[in-house]
Model the fold of this input.
Amino acid sequence: MSGKNEFLPDWANDPPAGGSYRSIFKWGAPDAFKHPNRRLYGMLKEELHLSDDDFRKKRALGNQPVALDLSCGMEPEQVRRFMDISGPENVFSDDYARVKCGTGKTLEEALRLRHGAPVQAPDLVVHPRTAEEIEKIVALCARDGIPAYAYGGGSSVTLGLRPSRGGVCLVMTTHMNRLVRFSEINQTITVEPGMTGPQLENLLNNAPDTLNATRRYTCGHFPQSFEFSSVGGWIAALGSGQQSSYYGDMADLVVSQAYVTPAGAFKTLDYPATATGPKVNDIMKGSEGAFGVIVGATLKIFRYAPENRKRFAFIFPEWEAAVSAARDISQGEFGMPSAFRISDPEETRVAMRLYGIEGTPVDRYLSLRGLRPQNRCLFIGSADGERAFARNIRKKVKKICKRSGAVYITGLPVKKWEHGRFTDPYMREDLGDFGIIIDTLESAVTWEGFHRLHQGVRAFIKSRPRTMCMTHASHFYPQGTNLYFIFIAAMTDLEEYLEFQQGIVEQILKHGGSLSHHHGVGKMTAPWMEAHLGKAQMDVLRALKRHFDPNNIMNPGGTLGLDVADEEKRRLLPGGS
Amino acid sequence: MSGKNEFLPDWANDPPAGGSYRSIFKWGAPDAFKHPNRRLYGMLKEELHLSDDDFRKKRALGNQPVALDLSCGMEPEQVRRFMDISGPENVFSDDYARVKCGTGKTLEEALRLRHGAPVQAPDLVVHPRTAEEIEKIVALCARDGIPAYAYGGGSSVTLGLRPSRGGVCLVMTTHMNRLVRFSEINQTITVEPGMTGPQLENLLNNAPDTLNATRRYTCGHFPQSFEFSSVGGWIAALGSGQQSSYYGDMADLVVSQAYVTPAGAFKTLDYPATATGPKVNDIMKGSEGAFGVIVGATLKIFRYAPENRKRFAFIFPEWEAAVSAARDISQGEFGMPSAFRISDPEETRVAMRLYGIEGTPVDRYLSLRGLRPQNRCLFIGSADGERAFARNIRKKVKKICKRSGAVYITGLPVKKWEHGRFTDPYMREDLGDFGIIIDTLESAVTWEGFHRLHQGVRAFIKSRPRTMCMTHASHFYPQGTNLYFIFIAAMTDLEEYLEFQQGIVEQILKHGGSLSHHHGVGKMTAPWMEAHLGKAQMDVLRALKRHFDPNNIMNPGGTLGLDVADEEKRRLLPGGS
Done:
C-alpha cells in the first residue's frame, strides 16, 4: 500500500509569513508541524472519496498580512489612560495585535482568517503587569462602559475570546505569568493566571532546584492545549486534562482564586474544605471572564513519580464490551487510571494506522483471536501515584478487560500516544490547506445515557456522505464520562460548516449529552445554554452576572448565554451573521 | 482504682417524660443511653476538680411539660390555607410541636430547654407530603411574607433551625423521605430530603433485595448524627462523615439537587462533570435553607464491601510526629484511608480510658517503648474499597507510622471506636444533669496552619481553670484537615457559656482556622461570617439570596450572616440577648 515513491501531499513545512493571518490561526509553535502519516493519508482518501489529485493544489493559505477594516474605536484620550496605567510599551492598537487577541482556535475562526473574512477585534490590546493595574483597568472600563476581555493562551475553541463589542483585551501571558507562592507543606502552588502549562510543569517537575523543595511535583493537568494554554484559561473554561480521571478536572484542582471584578477585588480562602455556605471559589470557576478577571490561583499539586507509571492497552472485540469494562474500572474502587481512553471502532481504525499497529503481527494475532477489524475498540491507559497503588490498578484493569474478551497489547501504544498527544492539532492546517475540515465537539454523559448519545450524534454526523466520525471517551468518573466526537470532511463553505456544527450540537442535546464537558461554552454554544440548563438555572447565572458586572463590560456579547438578547441570539446562531 | 462498690452517679436511665422539654433536647432515641464509664467518670472528677458529692444531686432535668408563652401569630384564615395544601392532619400549632421543630441540638438550646427558658418557635408546623405541596407552601409564604424553615433530623448544632421570626416549619422526615430513583449503572441514588441515614444505608446495603440490584452499596456518609439526621440536612449544612477522607464530604457526594425557591423550582443536571459555566449544583450546596427548600437529591454511591475493610491503630510518641505522619499519608498517593483520626495527648488520655487500653499490657508495653503517657497520641484508621487497594493502604500507613516512631496496637481500638461512634452524644445529658457542659467547635485548616490553630485555640480553652480540651483531626485532604475541639467544664450559667464559646470562635479566626469545616454556620457563627469571608464574598452570597428570596422568607434571621443587620448582629452575639 505504501511505496516509497507514492504521492504524498506537499504538507506545509514553513512557518507562516510574519504578520499574516496564517500566523494567527496556525496551531502551536510557528515552526512546528505534524503531518498526517502515509497510512492516515491513505485512509483519508478512502473515507472522503478523494484522490491524490485533490491534494495537488492548495487552497487559500492565509499568508497575506492582516488588514482590519475596523478602526480602533477608542478616543486617543482613552488610549492614553490605558498607557498611563500599564505603560505605553504594553498598549497596542495595530491591526495584527487586535486580530490576534480577538480570536481563539475554533474552526470557524480559522476558516474566517484563512480567507481574510471579516472578524471582530478589540479596540486595544493591553499587557498588564500587575493585579493592581488590572484593578485600575477594570475600574476605568466600568466607569466608561468599555468591554474588557482576558486573553491567556488563546486556545479557546468556543469563541470564548470573541470581542463582540470592541473594547480592551488584556493579555495575561506576557507579564502576569509569575510564581506567587509555593507551599510544599500544603502541596499547593499559587501562580498568576498567565502562567502556561510548560512553565508550571517545569517549575514543579524540577521543584528541588526551582522551588527549593524536597521532592518533585506535578499539577497533573494536561489538556491537549497544554503547551499553549494558561492556568487562567483552564479555570475560566473548566478544562480537563488527559489524565483527569486520576488527577481531577480543573474544577477539582483549584483551591482558591483571586479576582478583579467591577464589583471589587477579592481572594477566596485557602481551606481544603469548609461548611461556611456556598463556596465563592466554586461560584467563580467556569465564569469564562464574564464576572471578572482571574489574577491569581492556588492549585493542588501532586508528587511527580513518572518512574511509577504503569501503562496498558487492549483491543476489545466490540464497543459495548469496552464501555462496560470502562464503567467497571471507574466503579471498581481500586483507584482511577490516570490516562484512560476508549475509542469506538471508527476511531480505532484510525488509531491502528496512526500508532502503526495495522498490518503488524499484533494485527494478525487479533484477527486470529476473532477480533474483527470493523468492530475492534482500542483502550489505552496508565496508572500514576504510589508504586504499589499503580501496579494494583494495572492488575485490576487487566483482569476486568480480559474478562470482557479484550486482548492485551502491551503498554507500547500508550507510549506512542503520550509522544504525540499534544501535537495532533497541528494536522488541522495540513488538512485545511486542501479544503478538509477536522473539528471536535465533546459532551458529558452519565453511564446510562452513554450509548444513546454516541449512537444519536454519530448517526447524524455519518448521515452526511463522505464524513468521518471518530469518537472516544477519555475522562472517567464512577457516574459517567465524556464523549469526544471528531469529525472530518471535505468542506470549504463556512455556512455549510456552521450549519453542520449546529446540527451536531442539537443532536447532543436531543440525546441527553451536556453542552460541554471540558471546552466551555464561550459564545459558540451560548445560544443553547438556556435550553440546556433551564431558565431557573440561567437566572441564577444572570443574577451573579448582574452582581459582578452590572454594566455588562466583562467579556460581553453572549458569553455563557448571559447576555444573549433574542435578536443577538439569532445573529450568534450559525447562519445568522 | 475501680472497685465494685465504688460510687457511680445515678445516670438517667428512663426515657424523658412525654411532652417534656427533656424529650426535645435529649440526644437520639428516647430510651437509648450511653453513660460515662467508670474510668471516664474518674477522669472527669480529677480534671474538673470534682468529687462524688458533686454527682449526688441532679440539677434541672427539664422533665416539665413544654409550655410556650408565645402564641401562634398566624391568622386562622392563614392556618387554613396550609391545611388546604397539606391536609389538616399534617398541620400543627401546639406548643410542643412548635418548640420541638424550632430547636436543634446546640448546647445553647439544650441549656435553655433544660431550664424552661424562653425559646423562639415557629407559628406553625407542617409536614408536607410532596414537592408540589412545598411549591404551593413557598408560594403562599412568599405572597404573605411568612418565614419558612425546613426541618430534617433536627440535629443542627449551629442554631440552624432557630425560627427567628415565627412562620412555618416544614418537617421533611415525615413524608418526604422516599426513594425516588436508583441507578445501578450510574451508581447513584435519588431520594427525597427527609430520608435519614439508617433509611438510606438500609436501602443501599441490602440493594439486591430492596433495589433489585446486583450488588450491595453504601453512600459512605457517616456523620456522628448519622442515625438522626437526613440527606437534606447533610447537604444544607455541608456535612462530612467519619469516613469522608475516602468517600468525600457532602460537597463531593451530591450529583444533583431539586429545589423549591421563591424564585421558582428547578432541578440541576445529572452530569458527572461539565464545563457549562458556574455549577448551580455547587451554588446550592451549603445554602442552609436560606435560598429555598431541597426537595430531592441524587447522591453518589459506592460498592459496599465491609469484608475488605482493614483497620489499624497506632500510638505516637508525640503530637508533631502524629500530625506529620497524617500529612504524609494524605499526600502519599496510595489512596486515602476511610476512617482516619489523630487525637492530641489530652484526647488520647481520655480515649485510652474509654477504649480500655489504660492499665493493660499494651499500656505497659508503650511505656517500655519510651512512649510517655503525657505525650502519647492515638491514631485510628481503616481502609475501604477493593481488597488489594485497602491492603496496600494499611501497608503504607504502617510504614509511615513506624518510621515516625509510632507503635502499632492492632485494629482493635478501631473496632471499639466503630462500635460507639454514633453514641457519644448521649453522654451530654448525663453530664448536663450534674451541671457539666460538653460542647464542640470544629474548623478547617491547611497543613501549614495546623499547629498554630491547635495551640492558639487550646491555650484559650485551657486558660479557663478546670476545663478539659480534647482535640482531634478527622477529615483529611492532601491540602489540610480539620481540627475538632471538644471542651468539658462545670458550667451552668448560660451567659458564661456563651461568652466562652464566643471566645473560642474568635480564637479560631485569630489563628487562621475556618468558621466551620462540617457543621455549617446557621445563626450561631453567622455574625462572624463577613469578617471571615470578607465583604466581597459575602456580597456574592447576598446577591444570591436576593435572587432566590427577595423578600427574605427562607430561614431568615441571620442564617449564614445573610441578613444580619448591625442591630440584629449585636442581639445575636452571645451576651447581647
Remarks:
- The two ends of chain B are 45 Å apart (CA to CA).
